[in-house]
Amino acid sequence: MTVQPREQWATRAGFLLAAIGSAVGLGNIWRFPAIAYDNGGGAFLLPYLIALLTAGIPLLIMEYIIGRKYRLSPPAALRRMARPAEAIGWWQVAISFVIATYYAVIIAWAVRYVGFSVGQQWGDDPEAFLFGDFLRAPDTPGFLDGFVPGVFWPLVVVWVVVLGVLAFGIRRGIERANKVFIPLLFVLFAALVIRALTLDGAATGLDALFTPDWSELGNGSVWVAAYGQIFFSLSIGFGIMVTYASYLGRRADLTGSAMVAGFANSSFEILAGIGVFATLGYLATASGVGVDEVAGAGIGLAFVAFPAVISEMPFGGFFGILFFSSLVIAGLSSLISIVQVVVSAVQDRTGMRRRTAVLGVGGLVALVSLVLFPTESGIYLLDASDHFINQYGIALAALVGLIVIVWVLRQLPSLQANADATSAVRLGHWWRICLGVITPVVLGWMMVDSLRTEFQENYEGYSTGFLLSAGWSVAIGALLVGVILSFMPWPAGGEDIDLDMESPADRKER
User: Fold this and answer.
1) In Å, how far from its chain's centre is CA 160?
2) What count of other Cβ atoms lies within 10 Å of the Cβ of residue 198?
């Protein structure tokens, strides 16, 4: 097998922008504000900050170290630690494959809504327009039912852009794209926030978000929500940061980069909270209702509540273009990183050239996306897949990976030494305590709490048959694919990929 030289980021800034672009995604805009509002308002920021410092940044550092040390994708890097651990890496790749297929669809919706904003084409009932006129969703979910051209064609455009960026590689593709996407995203969103703060009722919305309810700090579910938000918003647990860090130079500062990326992501989440709730405060004031009656999260917030605001406010079309363009850019930067996990793993496994891997493997991801989701029941399939792959894919894979790396293989001391050798901020005992005790306990509790809720009632009232086929089967299937791929033999020389790029110290340690 021909060994391809490992690409590298051109600059540290390029890597940081790509890492921030991966972390800052759709969830920052439509998930964090609602989570904070429902869990103590301003008081939520305390457990949120603690979660960032005790779980988010420590996990981010660990993934950076693994990627930089082994200079390989998750399956190959974990294989270097111990051959059985390779299954965890392929599990993460399968999770990324699943997420990429439906994440692109939401971006396609946002693309259409940029155009819809110009004339407020959703009319007087944004909810009926979304589910009826645009998505043509039936009352009950099915599989591969009616085709929806209005979703299919923008989805094609999204995949052309993503695969085009990936085909140009790390420096000329991903790095250059994020040098445009991330500054543009912050400019657009800053303009959106400034406009939102000038609306009548903005102060009412901000009071609803930031007024602290300190009594909520005694509620365990609030702390679980804080750790869950940090975990899901930082793109950790499914191979992205290991993959991105594998393209770093040997002397890169890892701890400093993790702190910059972590705090940049959290800063954007708080900025998003300000923009979203200032806007919701305006809608509540204009409608003569409380903020709690218009507050929401996810698809309902982005594609129902915000169109309602746009229809009510002066120059609403411009506001809508800003908001949905922000969603498109945030989504694209994250989707690129997700697909790169799959591409990188296949390259390391086969020695395939980048453009061949992008067109072959990336094209397969796009094909699955285009077949399953531009259908009338696509939104139901998306909802169920997203819920189960997040709760029992990403979080569970991270928990298993952490237990194996920390407790079974006892890799933290060597990983810490690797980071301390090149980082400005040295890791202390706090890092090992966080990863060895705090984070596994919290992730374990999240699993128990989520499963208890799952078995009490069906998610969103869906039928058991639909949840088994579109939810549980997706989460369990990703795990099985990971295990099966780990048993497939590597081609001759495959285990020695990139050994020629190791330093003598690395070879000795290995």
Assistant:
1) 20
2) 9
Q: How far is CA 243 from CA 96, 340, 423, in A?
A: 12, 8, 19
Q: Which residues contact 102 (CB under 8 A, 6 or more apart)?
A: 369, 372, 373, 381, 382, 385, 386
165-208 confidence digits (pLDDT tens): 999 999 999 999 999 999 999 999 999 899 899 989 999 999 98
365-to-340, 362, 374, 429 alpha-carbon distances in Å: 11, 5, 14, 41
Q: Is 291 helix (H, G, I), strand (E, B) or coil?
A: helix
Q: What percentage of the chain's residues is helix, strand, coil (to nearest 5)?
A: 80, 0, 20
Helices (H), 141-253: 149-167, 169, 176-197, 202-210, 220-233, 240-245
Best CA proximity match to 182, nearest among 12, 11, 7, 13: 13
Helix (H, G, I), strand (E, B) or coil at 19: helix
The alpha carbon torsion through 162, 166, 170, 176 (nearest 10 deg) reads: -40
Stretches in the chain below the pLDDT threshold 70: 1-4, 296-297, 492-510
Spell out the residues 6+ positions from residue 28 whose beta carbon is closer than 8 angstroms to its own: 233, 265, 268, 269, 272, 330
Provide the token pair at 437. 């005790």
Q: In angstroms, what CA-CA distances link 99 with 93, 366, 447?
A: 10, 11, 19
CA angle 38, 40, 46 (to 5 degrees): 125
Query: Quick one: pLDDT at residue 316?
Result: 83
Query: Cα separations (Å) of 320 from 29, 81, 296, 391?
Result: 14, 49, 18, 31
Tell me if 279 sits within 8 A of 306, measured CB to CB: yes
The dihedral sign for the CA sequence 328, 334, 335, 336: positive
The whole-number pLDDT of residue 19 equals: 95
Q: d(Cα 256, Cα 246) in Å, to the nearest integer?
A: 16
- Asked whether the beta carbons of 230 and 55 are under 8 A apart, the reply is yes
Strand (E) positions, 235-307? none
478 neighbors 95 (Cβ within 8 angstroms): yes
Dig out the tokens for 197 from the structure.
């703060």
Amino acid at residue number 313: M
> What are the tokens at 88?
């965890």
Cα–Cα distance for residue pair 171/323, rounded to 1 Å: 29
Give me 306's structure tokens: 């915000």
Q: Look up tokens 């070879």; give the residue.
A: 507
**Residue 15 CB-half CA count within 13 A:** 26
Q: What pLDDT does residue 492 have?
A: 60
Q: Which residues sit opposite 147 in a β-bridge?
A: 375
Tokens of 362: 């990336």
Model pLDDT, residue 356: 95
CA distance 314 to 307: 13
Question: Would you say 147 and 375 are in contact if contact means Cβ atoms under 8 Å apart?
Answer: yes
Single-letter code of the amino acid located at 90:
W
